[in-house]
């Protein structure tokens, strides 16, 4: 029987920190969802509902990975190793693409034209960009959730809380910080810098996966 971990055990804050760092490393990748949050923030349209929807969705997906799919993966070492190396390969390629884009530049920046739209339509778009994106299941459910599933007891809850906190902080920063940075976000040089950061983070997480086997506790 796997022993439970007390909420006061040092493993809990350590797991929370791991969850926050891993989620932060993955979520900074500029994609359709993040671009939508930035766009809504610049327009000051439905920012809070969009930020809350994105953050809660990430929390749900991480929890599903940790307590559901993550546990299933952890019980099958061969499958775990397949996801470990597959995830590392995906992150390495993603990092290479980001580095290539940062090197060549040429981006026109974030396109901010358009109207705010209704709350219902905006939230529908947000949910579609979140749950219809196949990468979210690899990144959040399988990769992040699979790592969190290696913890036991309260440490799992700590991992989920840490990952959710990082997600909530990131989306809040994007949404509420975008209004004051609209001019900066239109500059191609800004996106080159972001892509360079994304490449470094992706490669760092890939290296962590390769150097640290996801073995059961």
Compile the SSE list and pairings.
Blueprint: H1 11-27, H2 32-43, H3 47-74, H4 77-104, H5 119-131, H6 134-148, H7 154-177, H8 182-185, H9 188-211
Largest sheet: none
Mean pLDDT: 77
Structural class: mainly alpha
Helix content: over 70%
Low-confidence stretches: 107-115
Straight-line distance between termini: 11 Å
- Gyration radius over CA: 18 Å
What is the total tally of β strands?
A: 0
Individual helix count: 9
Order of helices and strands: HHHHHHHHH
Strand content: under 5%
Rough shape? globular
- Domain count: the total is 1
Task: Give a written overview of the molecule.
With 217 residues, the protein is mainly α. The protein has one domain (11-211). The chain is 76% helix and 0% strand. It is built from nine helices and no strands. It has helices spanning 11-27, 32-43, 47-74, 77-104, 119-131, 134-148, 154-177, 182-185, 188-211. It is globular and about 45 Å long. The N and C termini lie close together (11 Å). Residues 107-115 have low confidence and may be disordered.
């Amino acid at each position: 029987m796997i022993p439970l971990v007390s909420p006061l055990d040092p493993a809990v804050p350590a797991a929370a920190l791991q969850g926050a760092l891993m989620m932060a490393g993955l979520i900074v990748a500029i994609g359709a969802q993040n671009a939508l949050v930035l766009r809504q923030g610049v327009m000051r349209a439905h920012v809070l509902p969009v930020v809350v929807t994105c953050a809660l969705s990430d929390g749900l997906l991480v929890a599903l990975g940790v307590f559901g799919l993550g546990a299933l993966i952890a019980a099958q070492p061969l499958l775990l190793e397949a996801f470990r190396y597959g995830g590392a390969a995906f992150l390495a390629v993603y990092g290479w693409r980001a580095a290539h884009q940062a090197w060549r530049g040429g981006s026109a920046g974030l396109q901010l034209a358009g109207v705010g739209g209704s709350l219902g339509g905006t939230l529908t778009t947000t949910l579609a960009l979140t749950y219809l994106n196949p990468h979210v299941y690899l990144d959040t459910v399988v990769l992040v959730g699979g790592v969190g599933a290696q913890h036991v007891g309260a440490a799992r809850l700590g991992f989920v809380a840490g990952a959710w906190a990082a997600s909530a902080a990131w989306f809040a920063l994007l949404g509420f910080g975008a209004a004051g940075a609209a001019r900066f976000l239109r500059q191609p040089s800004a996106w080159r810098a972001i892509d360079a950061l994304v490449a470094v983070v992706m490669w760092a997480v890939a290296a962590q996966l390769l150097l640290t086997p996801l073995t059961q506790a």
